[in-house]
Write a structure and sequence with these properties.
heterodimer, A: alpha/beta, Transcription Regulator spoIIAA, 2 domains, four-stranded mixed beta sheet, 12 helices, B: alpha/beta, Rossmann fold, six-stranded mixed beta sheet, four-stranded antiparallel beta sheet, 10 helices, about 25% strand, binds adenosine-5'-triphosphate, binds magnesium ion
Chain lengths: ~350, ~260
C-alpha cells in the first residue's frame, strides 16, 4: 500500500490470508480521496471487504472515495459486499446485575418444580400405557422388549457380578479387622449377609444399571428426537411411549431383580472367600451360620426395592431422552443429567424404604 | 481445452459391502467451470462427492484434485488441500450446537489466524450474501427452516473463499425465487472469484441457468458429459427421459422467453 497525492494505491494479493496485515489508520489520516486497485493481484470477498472498510475509513462524513482501476468483476464483487455489509455495532453482552441473578435463581427453582410435575405426569402416562397393554398383550413390542432385556440384563451380568464380588471382599476384610478385636469373628457372616442382601447388592446394581442403561436410553431416544423420528412416529399414529418407553422400562423391571439376585450371590461368594482367607471361617461354617441365622426377610427387603428402582431408572432415562432438542449439546447435557438424577432418586427411594421397613419392623 | 483438469477421477470403484456403487467411473472437471452432476436417486452422486473430498475410501481408482492425489497424501498435504475447497452437504450438516455465525466462522477459526472482529465481519457478510437475514446470525440450526439451513451450509462452504465448492443439491427445498437467487449467487461468485463448482442437482432450472457442462451418472459410471444442448442428442433412455421430459421442456421454454 502506498499513499501518494490523495491516492491510496493497493498492491499485491488482497485475499483472506493477507488482509490481516493491512491497516487503514495511516490512509485515513492522510485525507486521501481515491483508492487505486490497478496493481491488485488476486482479489476475493475478504479483500473486497477490506477495500469497503478502507472506503469507509476515507469517507467519514458520508463523502465517497473514488475508486480507480477496478476491473468490472472487482467492481461487481465490491458492490455485492457493500450491499451485504451488516449493520455496525453488535450489541454488547449485557452486564449481569443482582436482580438478574435472583431472577435466574427463581426461574431455575420454578423449572425444577415444573420438571418434577412433568416427570410425575410422564410416569402416569407410562403406567397407564402398561395397564392398557396388560389388557391388550398383542400390542406389546415383544421383540424390542426381549432385545432390551438382553441389553440391560444379560450384558450387565459380568460387570455387576464383579462389582458385587469386590464389595463382598471389602466388607469381609473391613469387618474382620473390627470383629477380631472382640473375638466375634463369626459375626462377619451376619454382617455380610445383612448388608449385601438388604442394601448393597440391589443398591449398587441399580447405580451401575443407571449409569449403563439409563444413559443409553436417554442417548438413544434423544438422538431419535433430534432427527425428528419421534415426530415421524406420531404422525404415523404410532405412540412413542408404547414403542420406545414401555419395552425399555419393562425390560428393566424384569431384569433388575435378576441382576440383584446375581449380585447377591456374587457378593456372598466374595465375602465367604475373604472370611475364609482372612478369618479362617470355613465355607462350611459360613454356610451353616448363613442358613440358620439370616432371616429370609433380608433377601425379601432387597428384592422388593428392585422393581421400584427399575421404574425410576427407566422413567428418568426415557423422560430425559424425550426432552432433547435439536442440538448435540442438549443430548449430552440431558444424558448426564439423566444419570445423576436417576442415581439420586434411587438413593432417595432407598432411604424412604429403610424408614418404611423400620416402621413396619422387618 | 488444452488445460489440465482441476479434478480428475479415473477408474473409480466404490463399494459398500457387496453393493457396488461406482464401477470404473471417469470424470474431469476443468478450472473455472460449473459442472452439474445429475443421475437418478441412489446412483451415487453424493458418494462420488464424498470420495472426491476424501471422506470415503474408494475400493480402487485414482482421484486427483489440483493435481494431487486425495488418497495417497500425507495428513499435512491433505489439510492444505482441504483449505482450497468448501463442501456443502445434502442435509446441511451444520454443527448443531453452534449458531449460524459460529458455524460460518468455524472454518476460519480452524484454518486461518484471523482477528475475532475480522472473522465476525466476514462471516456476517457471507451469511447475508447467501440471502439470510441478520436475525439468523445467532440462531441455532434447529431453529432454522430447511431452506435456511441450506443457505447457512452454503455460507460455511464459501467461508474461506475456496477455489472449488462442492454443492450437494443446494436448491432442493428452496422456493423457486430463492433457488433462482442462489443460482445467480453461484454464477456471480464463479465470475468474480474464478470459482470451480461441482454441483449435484436435480434442478433443471439450475442446469439451464448456470451449468457449463453436465455429467450424467447411470449404470455405475458417467455415461455422458456435455453441454445442455449436447444432452438433447444423447441416446440413452434415462438421459432422454430426463432432458426431454415435460419439466425439461418447461425449463427450456422459460429460458427461451427470458
Ligand atoms: N454409508 C453408506 N453405507 C452403505 N450404503 C451407502 C452409504 N452411503 C450411500 N450408500 C448407498 O450408495 C448408493 C448411492 O448413494 P448416494 O447417497 O450417493 O445417492 P445419490 O445419487 O446422492 O442420491 P440422491 O439423489 O437421492 O441424493 C445408494 O444405493 C446408497 O444406498
Ligand atoms: Mg445425494
Amino acid at each position: 500500500m502506498t499513499i501518494d497525492a490523495g491516492t491510496v494505491t493497493l498492491r499485491g494479493d488482497l485475499v483472506i490470508s493477507t488482509i490481516e496485515s493491512l491497516s487503514w489508520a495511516a490512509a485515513a489520516q492522510s485525507g486521501a480521496t481515491t483508492i487505486n486497485l490497478d496493481a491488485v493481484g488476486r482479489f476475493d470477498t475478504a479483500g473486497a471487504w477490506a477495500v469497503v472498510e478502507l472506503d469507509r475509513a476515507l469517507s467519514p462524513q458520508g463523502r465517497k472515495a473514488t475508486l480507480a482501476g477496478a476491473t468490472d468483476l472487482q467492481a461487481e464483487l465490491l458492490a455485492t459486499i457493500r450491499d451485504n455489509m451488516p449493520d455496525d455495532g453488535a450489541p454488547a453482552a449485557p452486564r449481569r446485575t443482582i436482580a438478574e441473578l435472583l431472577d435466574t435463581f427463581g426461574r431455575r427453582t420454578a423449572h425444577s418444580f415444573g420438571q418434577a410435575i412433568a416427570i410425575t405426569g410422564f410416569l402416569g402416562q407410562v403406567v397407564s400405557t402398561i395397564a392398557y397393554l396388560a389388557l391388550h398383550p398383542r400390542q406389546v413390542r415383544w421383540t424390542a422388549m426381549f432385545y432390551h432385556m438382553q441389553q440391560v440384563g444379560l450384558s450387565a451380568v459380568p460387570i455387576v457380578s464383579l462389582m458385587a464380588f469386590l464389595i463382598g471382599v471389602v466388607l469381609a476384610f473391613q469387618g474382620a479387622a473390627q470383629l477380631r478385636q472382640f473375638g466375634a469373628e463369626v459375626f462377619v457372616v451376619d454382617l455380610i449377609a445383612i448388608s449385601i442382601l438388604r442394601e448393597l447388592g440391589i443398591l449398587l446394581t441399580a447405580i451401575i444399571v443407571a449409569g449403563r442403561s439409563g444413559s443409553a436410553f436417554t442417548a438413544a431416544i434423544g438422538s431419535m428426537k433430534m432427527r425428528e423420528e419421534i415426530d415421524a412416529m406420531r404422525t404415523l399414529g404410532l405412540d412413542p411411549v408404547t414403542i420406545l418407553v414401555v419395552p425399555r422400562t419393562l425390560a428393566l423391571i424384569f431384569m433388575l431383580p435378576v441382576l440383584g439376585v446375581i449380585a447377591n450371590a456374587a457378593g456372598l461368594f466374595g465375602g465367604a472367600l475373604m472370611s475364609w482367607i482372612e478369618l479362617g471361617v470355613s465355607p462350611g461354617v459360613f454356610q451353616i451360620r448363613f442358613a440358620t441365622n439370616t432371616d429370609v426377610w433380608h433377601f425379601g427387603v432387597g428384592m422388593i426395592k428392585a422393581p421400584f428402582f427399575a421404574l425410576i431408572i427407566g422413567i428418568i432415562g426415557c423422560y430425559q431422552g424425550m426432552q432433547v432438542e435439536g442440538n448435540a449439546e442438549s443430548l449430552g447435557r440431558l444424558t448426564s443429567l439423566s444419570v445423576v438424577l436417576s442415581i439420586f432418586l434411587v438413593i432417595t427411594a432407598d432411604a424412604l424404604f429403610s424408614i418404611f421397613f423400620a416402621i413396619v419392623g422387618v | 481445452m488444452p488445460q489440465d483438469p482441476i479434478i480428475r477421477v479415473r477408474g473409480l470403484v466404490t463399494r459398500f459391502g457387496t453393493h457396488t456403487v461406482h464401477d470404473g467411473l471417469d470424470l474431469d472437471v476443468m478450472r473455472g467451470e460449473i459442472i452439474g452432476v445429475v443421475g437418478g436417486s441412489g446412483t451415487g452422486k453424493s458418494v462420488l462427492l464424498q470420495s472426491i473430498v476424501g471422506l470415503l475410501k474408494p475400493a480402487s481408482g485414482q482421484i486427483t484434485v489440483f493435481g494431487q492425489s486425495v488418497r495417497d497424501t500425507s495428513d499435512h498435504d491433505y489439510r492444505e488441500l482441504r483449505k482450497r475447497w468448501g463442501v456443502m452437504f445434502q442435509d446441511g450438516a451444520l454443527f448443531s450446537s453452534l449458531n449460524v455465525q459460529q458455524n460460518v466462522e468455524a472454518p476460519m477459526r480452524e484454518q486461518l489466524d484471523l482477528r475475532a472482529e475480522t472473522r465476525t465481519a466476514l462471516a456476517r457478510i457471507k451469511i447475508r450474501m447467501v440471502g439470510l437475514h441478520e436475525d439468523a446470525f445467532d440462531k441455532l440450526p434447529a431453529e432454522l427452516s430447511g431452506g435456511m439451513r441450506k443457505r447457512a451450509g452454503f455460507a460455511r462452504a464459501i467461508a474461506l473463499d475456496p477455489e472449488i465448492v462442492f454443492l450437494d443439491e443446494p436448491t432442493a427445498g428452496l422456493d423457486p425465487i430463492g433457488a433462482a437467487a442462489f443460482d445467480k449467487l453461484i454464477a456471480q461468485l464463479r465470475a468474480t472469484l474464478g470459482l470451480t463448482v461441482f454441483l449435484v442437482t436435480h434442478d433443471l432450472d439450475s442446469l439451464h441457468a448456470i451449468c457449463d457442462r453436465i455429467a450424467v451418472i447411470a449404470e455405475k459410471r458417467v455415461i455422458a458429459t456435455g453441454t445442455m444442448a449436447e444432452m438433447q442428442e444423447v441416446d440413452h433412455p434415462w438421459v432422454a427421459a430426463y432432458f426431454k421430459g415435460p419439466r425439461a421442456r418447461a425449463a427450456l421454454a422459460q429460458k427461451d422467453i427470458a
